[in-house]
Amino acid sequence: MLEDLQRPLDEVQGCKVLERVAEHPDTTEKDIELARQYLDDPNWGAYSLANAFRRKGINVHKDSITRHREKRCPCW
Ligand SMILES: [Zn+2]
Predict the structure, then answer these.
(1) Distance, CA of 61 to chain centre
(2) Which terminus of the chain has a lower count of CB atoms within 10 Å, N or C?
(3) The pTM is what?
(4) Domain boundaries in the chain?
(5) pLDDT-based confidence at residue 74 (cuts at 50, 70, 90)
(6) How far is the CA of 24 from the centre of ligand 1 (A)?
(7) What is the DSSP string of the chain?
């Protein structure tokens, strides 16, 4: 029953976007997966995606999103 306490942090280490997502207390593995999908989705601008994360209580800078998208991010 305690398996949910496992923080999905290992695979996101160094990624300023996914780290912030993983740090949120309600984040699940599924959320990490969804965050990756949003990051891959060209319909989401960096600015609006940062705002959408912020509304969920996740403070991500749009530059971190851009950096991730340009693959200048350790999570690739
Ligand atoms: Zn990344």
Answers:
(1) 11
(2) N
(3) 0.83
(4) 12-69
(5) confident
(6) 16
(7) -GGGG--TTGGGTT-HHHHHHHHSTT--HHHHHHHHHHHH-TTS-HHHHHHHHHHTT----HHHHHHHHTT-STT-
Are the C-beta atoms of residues 31 and 21 closer than 8 Å to each other? yes
**How many residues in total does the chain contain?**
76
Name the residues around ion ligand 1, CB cutoff 5 A.
15, 68, 73, 75
Query: In the Cβ-directed half-sphere of 10, how many Cα atoms lie within 13 Å?
Result: 1
- CA 44 to mean position of chain CA atoms: 13
Alpha-carbon distance 27 to 58, whole Å?
10
